[in-house]
Design brief:
This protein is of the alpha+beta class. Helix content is 22%, strand content 44%. It has a six-stranded antiparallel sheet with strand order 1-10-7-6-2-3. It has a six-stranded antiparallel β-barrel with strand order 12-13-14-17-16-15. The protein has a four-stranded antiparallel sheet with strand order 4-5-9-8. A hairpin with a 5-residue loop joins β16 and β17. The longest helix is centred in the last third of the chain and has 24 residues.
Length: 246
């Protein structure tokens, strides 16, 4: 009962309320994950009015065909300040600006969950993603391995010593995040925590690695879209890997 009450406060009902949220997704070109019983794909909103919405095709023809044949689709989008979820009973073939697309009736309601915590995904071990910072004490640049990332910030591990003066709360200008094939971006960030990760090495010795947590101060639309795509892709790869080893 408590879960239903919590859910109720996030519901947006009626064409005007639903359309206002969708218009924001459209304006920011936020990636949308479409999930159903037979698969999933990433798309984006192309058009929405009080009666109908149009989304782009996925990148895979087979996945697109599955989506057309399947009922009860679940759509989710991660924005910088909220998570948006809604359901569609069916997708239909449509054309938008002369190109094939998916159309559907406007949903009666959607969930928009405002939250302070963001979904966090682990960074891959191969290839390794890196973060570069200029230390506030002027001792030069540090390179650290990305351990996890979200729309709110990143956790990183340093293979070399970090300045002893770091204690959290410091501001970093132009923190650079390298995401391999996905691209790179620079963003201002605050250091929110300095900790350690301890693991047992190959020779049964304990290896202690500095771990730093950064919170992004501002993300522009392009950076947010890039991060959303990376998070979706890494989440999908993790699920596929888990399925292979079951």
């Amino acid at each position: 009962m408590k879960e239903e009450e919590d859910k109720e406060q996030y519901l947006k009902r009626g064409p005007l309320a639903v359309l206002a949220v969708l218009k924001n997704l459209l304006k920011s070109q936020t990636p949308i994950m479409v999930s159903h019983a037979r698969g999933q794909f990433i798309t984006r909103l192309l058009y929405a009015d009080k009666e109908r919405l149009v989304v782009d095709l996925g990148s895979n023809d087979y996945e697109n065909q599955l989506a057309l044949e399947t009922a009860d689709l679940h759509l989710t989008a991660e924005t910088h300040g909220a998570k948006v979820e809604f359901a569609l009973s069916k997708l239909e073939e449509e054309r938008y600006d002369g190109l094939p697309a998916f159309g559907a009736g406007l949903p009666d309601e959607l969930l928009m969950i405002q939250r302070r915590e963001y979904f966090r995904v682990s960074a891959p071990l191969d290839p390794i993603f890196y973060c570069y910072v200029k230390w506030p004490d002027g001792s030069g640049e540090g390179r650290m391995r990305l351990q996890d990332l979200s729309l709110g910030g990143i956790g990183v591990l340093s293979d070399s010593p970090i300045p002893e003066t770091l204690e959290g709360g410091e501001s970093f200008k132009n923190l650079r995040v390298e995401l391999g094939e996905y691209g790179r971006f620079e963003v201002d960030a605050n250091l929110i925590n300095v900790g350690q990760r301890s693991v047992v090495g190959n020779k049964n010795e304990t290896v202690v690695t500095p771990r730093l947590s950064f919170r992004f101060l501002t993300l522009n639309f392009a950076q947010e879209r890039l991060l959303q795509q990376v998070i979706f892709s890494l989440e999908r790869l993790a699920r596929e890997k888990a399925t292979r080893f079951q």
